[in-house]
Structure formats: C-alpha cells, structure tokens
Specification:
Blueprint lengths: L2 H26 L7 H8 L1 H11 L1 H7 L3 H21 L3 H29 L3 H26 L5 H26 L18 H6 L5 H30 L4 H51 L3 H8 L1 H20 L5 H30 L10 H4 L1 H17 L11
Helix pairs in contact: 1-6, 1-7, 1-8, 3-6, 3-14, 4-14, 5-6, 5-8, 6-7, 6-14, 7-11, 7-13, 10-11, 10-13, 10-14, 10-16, 11-12, 11-13, 11-16, 13-14
C-alpha cells in the first residue's frame, strides 16, 4: 500500500469513529433517561478536550512523540472507552468514558493532518484528496445506521442506536493498529532554540495581523458551522420533510464535500488563499438565505450541497494554510489552536447563540418558527466574516513557513 493510500485509509477510519456516534448521540441520551443538564455536560466533552489539548497533548505530539505512535496510543485508549460506552447506562460512567475518549480523540484530528502534511510531496495540491477519505468515512458511518434502525422503535431502537459505540470502538482499535504502519513522523525539535512551549510559540503568531484576522474569522465561521447542526434538523422537519429522510438529506452535504475536496488543490492554485476562503464563508450565507426565504423542497435539498463548499473551501483550506505559514516544530499545536475554535469555542458559542434565538423566534402558542428572521442571524454573520477576509486578510505572497 503506497503512502497516499495509507493516509487516505487513516482519514477514513479517523472520521468513521466520529461520524458513527456523534449524529445519534442526542437521540440516544434521552432514552438513557439523562436530564437536559446531563446531556449538555456530555455534549461539552469535545469542547473541554479541545481546550485541554492545546496546552498538553498537542505539545507532546509536537515535541516528544512520533506522530504515528501518539495516534496509535490515543486510539487504543479511545477505542476501549467507546466500547465501554456500549455497556454503560448510568450518567457518571457515561460522562467519564466520553470525556476520556474526547481527551484522546480531539488531538488526533490535528495529528492526522500533521502526518498527512509531513508525508505528502505537495500538500497544497494533494491534501484535499487525502482529507476526502475523512468525508468517505463519515458517510460510511452514517448511512448504515439509517437502514439498521428502519422500522425499529422503543428498546430495540435504543439498542440499535447504542451499537454505534461498539462500531466506533472497533474502528478506533483498528486505527490504533493501522497507525503503526504509517510513515514514521518524528517529533520536531525547537527550531529557534528558545525552549518555549509549542502551544505558546504557536499562539505568538497571533501577533501577525493576517493570522489574527484568520483566527477571528475561523471563530465566526466555526460558530455558524456548528449552528447549522443545531438548527437544520428541526428546520427540515418544520418545513415538511419526513423525519426519516432528514439525516439522508443532511448527508448530501458530506457527499458534495467529497467532490469539493477533489478540486480544492486546483481552486487554491487558481483563486489563492483569500478568495477560496471567502467563497467557503459565503457558502453559509447562501445556504441560510435559502433556508430563510425558500420552502421548495427541491431547492432546499440542492442547498445542502453547499456544505462541501463551506467545509472544504474554508476549514480544509485553513488546515493547509497552517501547514504553510507555521514552523514545523509547532504545526500540530497550531492545528490544535485553530481546532480550539472549530471543535470547542465555536461549538459552545453556537449552542449559546442559536438555541436561545430559536426559542425567541418560536411562537409559544402555535410553535411556529419565524425562519425568515432566525436565519438572518447566521446569514449576516457569514457576510460579515467574508467582508473581514476581503478587507483585512493579506497573507504574504510567498508560500513558505513563517519565521
């Protein structure tokens, strides 16, 4: 198996793990009789892990351990925790196991990126294809559950849903073993010899105006992106989609992501960093504008395809940009710094912004939602982020790591 194929398989397994348990999680927890507060705590594990990871695990990955070995150990621990979740029904055990899994899984998102970048000849051109494996993995994890649960209800449905933890755990254990076959990616020494912590050295680059602007826009876009998952499921049901078709309709975005990833390298070459990112951000504005003003199901389904543009043209581009503009010895920590926004703070902000807004624009008597006004919020945020990029994001012309 050649290196590119190994990296592709790595991404398939990496995102199969996440895609298996995340979509049904909030459908499983009520069946386990967890309260709203308990569900929120469990749902916050990823955010907690993203904060912890930037200070500890990413530092180890950058400066101490070979990346493929760190990946193997992380998925061994995380896989056992996921298998434990399959057996668990009480809150505190469930929370503890989910927290353990999150603490070791979240850093691996940055680490798989770092392994790919370190072992590709032309990351700017080739990363999109390799990262496409993650999208394939996510889709592969989501669709079987839809068919397995068809016609089930009650305890049988809950048992079927909980089996996702076993499937995710097996995938994690497979990736733990497979990681040892990946190319050796040793830790990077401190190239400046100043002995600073990797995360602190990465954070120091926020002093550069173009990095600071990208950091702010990433937070805004991460909030909008997470808001899509908060708002879209109830919206699709609210405008008349059959509940059983909602997940397949939403997954069309991931299918479109495969195609978008395939052309990402060409887009970056032709359009450059700024224009590519602006298109990705404005994809959110277009999609939410459709949600606000259109009730035609065909157009709404087509709008789901914008997810591929939103993710690949912004988030995947950000990961490539980090690999280009940050020094080698802090790239995993720099990935973790931005994942702090993408997986942590942006996700938390989405829940605190869009859940109250949904309640505000829902009629207490009729339960009808004023979608025209509700969706103007993320639309306006996306347009604002695009303007910030257009006016203030001016990276150096030379594609070389920052000093």
């Amino acid at each position: 198996m050649n290196t590119k194929l190994k990296l592709f398989v790595m991404m398939v397994l990496q995102f199969f793990i996440w895609g298996a348990w995340l979509p049904p999680l909030f459908g499983i927890m009520p069946g386990l009789k967890f309260t709203g507060t308990e569900q929120a705590l469990i749902g916050s594990c990823f955010a907690i892990a993203s904060i912890v990871g930037i200070f500890f695990s990413n530092q180890w990955a950058d400066r101490t351990f070979a990346a493929q070995r760190f990946l193997a150990v992380s998925h061994l621990i995380g896989g056992l925790a996921l298998v434990g979740l399959w057996f668990t029904t009480d809150f505190w055990s469930f929370f503890a196991l989910m927290l353990v899994h999150s603490l070791v899984y979240v850093p691996t998102i940055s680490i798989t990126n770092s392994i790919a970048f370190a072992n590709l000849t032309d990351p700017k051109k080739e990363f999109g294809i390799v990262r496409m494996g993650g999208t394939v993995g996510w889709i592969a994890a989501a669709w079987p559950l839809y068919f397995i649960l068809e016609g089930l209800d009650g305890d049988e449905k809950l048992a079927g849903q909980r089996a996702v933890f076993l499937a995710a755990g097996i995938a994690a254990l497979l990736l733990a073993g497979f990681s040892l076959t990946l190319p050796h990616t040793p830790p990077k020494t401190d190239t400046d010899g100043d002995g600073r912590l990797a995360w602190a050295k990465a954070a120091a680059f926020l002093k550069k105006p173009f990095i600071a602007v990208l950091f702010l826009v990433t937070f805004i876009d991460a909030t909008i992106h997470a808001g899509y998952f908060v708002l879209s499921y109830p919206y699709l049901e609210g405008v008349g989609f059959d509940p059983g078709s909602v997940m397949p309709v939403m997954s069309l975005g991931q299918i479109a992501e495969v195609a978008t990833m395939a052309v990402l390298g060409l887009a970056l070459k032709r359009l450059g960093w700024r224009t590519t990112m602006i298109i990705g951000v404005l994809g959110h504005a277009a999609r939410f504008a459709v949600f606000a003003y259109c009730r035609d199901h065909t157009i709404i389904v087509v709008a789901q395809l914008l997810h591929g543009v939103c993710y690949a043209f912004f988030f995947a581009t950000v990961y490539i940009f980090i690999d280009v503009f940050f020094p080698k010895d802090v790239r995993t920590s720099a990935q973790g710094l931005f994942n702090l926004l993408i997986l942590g703070l942006g996700d938390l902000a989405a829940k605190w912004i869009f859940v109250p807004l949904s309640e505000r624009y829902t009629d207490a008597v009729t339960k009808k939602v004023d979608y025209e006004t509700l969706f103007l919020w993320p639309t306006g945020m996306a347009i604002g982020a695009g303007v910030l990029l257009a006016l203030l994001f001016h990276p150096p012309k030379v594609d070389a790591p920052a000093d």
